[in-house]
Amino acid sequence: MDSLKKELEEELKLSTDDLRSHAWYHGPIGREGAEALLERDGDFLVRDTASSPGDYVLSCYWKDEPMHFKIIKVVLRPKKGYSRELFQFEGDRFDNIPALVRFHVGGRHPVSQASGAIVYHPITRSLPIRVISERQAERTGKDPQTAWDCHSGTHYRTSLRSSMLLTCYQVETVSCFRLDQFESLLLPENNRPLDPTVLTVLKELFTRSNAMTTALHILSVDCQVARIVGVTEDQKRMMGVGSGLELVTLSHGQQLRQDLLERHHLLALGVAIDILGCTGTVGQRATVLHKVILLAQALRDHAHNLYAFSAVMKALEMPQVVRLERTWRALRRNHTESAVMFEKTLKPFMIALNDGDGEEGGPLAVPYLVPLLRLMEGEEGEHTERGCQLLYNTLQAARNAALHAHSTRSTHTACSQPIPELLEGFRTEFALRLFWGQTGAAADKEKRYDKFDKILTVLSNKLEPTEEFSPEL
């Protein structure tokens, strides 16, 4: 395990021009081993060739038969003291192997004009190159450079930098949350932040909807934003993959990752406002807390939406909410079952999710994406034994989510009777405008978050001042 962790960390640091950073590169696998992995037209992989060290072979499957094409390393010495390595393939020369693969796979150029073979399904390996080679060498006694286990059995990981479906794609640089195109049913034009009239309408909407209905409306919006459902062929072509669950694992999925992190935080802020905005009695506020806990349960157990579930749990664990001691005591007294479920079931499950241990039991509508999103965006990570284990767990969870991207629980993604106003209430564009107003919504994210955190603190202190010792209502 320690060796695997080290290899994993090293591989993630490699440049995308480095052959070893791509999971379609299988190292010193033999001809027979490669053919055993190729099953359908378009399957391909790149491997070392034992007959001439330094050269490579592109192995593929086309028209019911395996094919192998030599990639020859050429060293050019145009002048004394200077040399340049190129890789020659079918008459063309490339700076590196990944560039060669991008040319043929991305542009759909036949790898051989004579055969007409086209490759577009990368066969990804299961383990880092050196780790598998060492394990095979231990069993066979062979040189690790020539040993390879093509039937490793358990799939431990696949590189996040692998081209899961190498094709032409467009790198997005603009958020999918387009405030300039957002038309609201609930917000007036040029609304001010936290408009009291709009907050009242929202509270009435939530009061009329039970936890299941609310959870399904959140799920419907989440699946659209995460591009799990409703993805057009044009969108697939632009993304280069068929689902947002795959896109977030790739380098060009940065904008979607940022959008999903933004949405996750705004969902949590919305729940916090629902609790802290209840200015009635402590008992009434405890009832709101009770309904939020039921919503978290519905998101987890019925909507199978761990992304939104974690956002609700994030709200419940915000310091401005946790400090409401009178409210939590009233919850334990008036809604004991919910209080017990929160402490004994939901909180431990959230801890397990953060440790990478909570997503057992088959495909989810929306998996717990947040650790992966933060990791890929460089927002978290610790250079410790525990941090390495969390990294490993996160990457494994991401791999599983990508593998199940086409078999998620789509039956849960639609509301039988959608309420347009309730759907809008969970749209990210709506939250941006409600929280910061028409003009403030376009401000820098960090400044917006800092300002709102101060608002939550003021609301919390107003509900239960620190020096307050009056009896509970």
UniProtKB/TrEMBL annotation:
Record-linked SMART domains: RasGEF (SM00147), SH2 (SM00252)
Residues of the SH2 domain: 24-123
Single GO MF descriptor: phosphotyrosine residue binding
InterPro entries in the record: Ras_GEF_dom_sf, RASGEF_cat_dom, RASGEF_cat_dom_sf, SH2, SH2-Ras-GEF_adapter, SH2_dom_sf, SH2_SHEP1/BCAR3/NSP1
Signal sequence extent: none
GO-annotated biological processes: small GTPase-mediated signal transduction
Protein name (record): Uncharacterized protein
Provenance organism: Oncorhynchus tshawytscha (Chinook salmon)
